[in-house]
Specification:
Elements: E1 5-13, E2 16-26, H1 30-40, H2 45-53, H3 59-76, E3 85-94, E4 98-103, E5 109-114, E6 117-125, H4 128-151, H5 154-170, H6 180-248
Antiparallel strand pairs: 1-2, 2-6, 3-6, 4-5
Helix pairs in contact: 2-3, 5-6
Length: about 250
Amino acid sequence: MTGPKLNEKSFVAGERSGTKASALYVHTGAWKARVVLNLIRGLPVRAADEVLQFTDREVAITIRKVLASAVANAVHNDELDAEELYVKACFADEGPTQKRFTPRARGRAGRIKKRSCHITIVVARLDDDRLEVVQAREARRTAAGRRRGAATTGVASRRARVERSRARATGLKDGDTVDEALVDEALVDDQVDDLTTTEVSTEAESDSAEAAEAAEVAEAAEVAEAAEVADDKPATSTDDEPAADEETN
């Protein structure tokens, strides 16, 4: 066996119909494949592909290829839209098992079973109600991605505005471009202007603070001087009374 073989054809079994793809003789156990298949059963093909892409199991690589093959069969053979498909059924059947042995102690042999499985995925078109839900969800995701992209274009828009202003200043015609060095220089000038404005405002605030502090000091000195004058006046009048009494005598 050189590798898994794909069996691709339309699948009709009773009331269950759809487009299927199979991988035969995959060198892994069926239970290992079923663990991954249980993750994508019933999902839209886009969501199923994302799940398989980030599933940390080796068999997920093979299952992803089978899913892509089933979608391709539905598009080319049944003329269906890939965006309207979902995983209708997926299963893994037991394949032939190769029996080997490994030597053990005292002449005994240990059993080795190299299992294989057949993986089958069936895709079909979503019904109208569920298709509307899926399309609305995709539209919301797309709108959210656009909003995130618009939030990161601030620098680019500013660069374009600077380039247009430089073009008008240098007299360039419509369609001409300004050298990148000039644009970078303009951006640097804007940043320097912003820093200069910040420094001027900081110096003004420090000057006003120093003036207020000097005014407070001057006011405190005046209050202290007035207090000293008030204290000196009563002492002078008290000293003059004995002198007046002596003159009277």
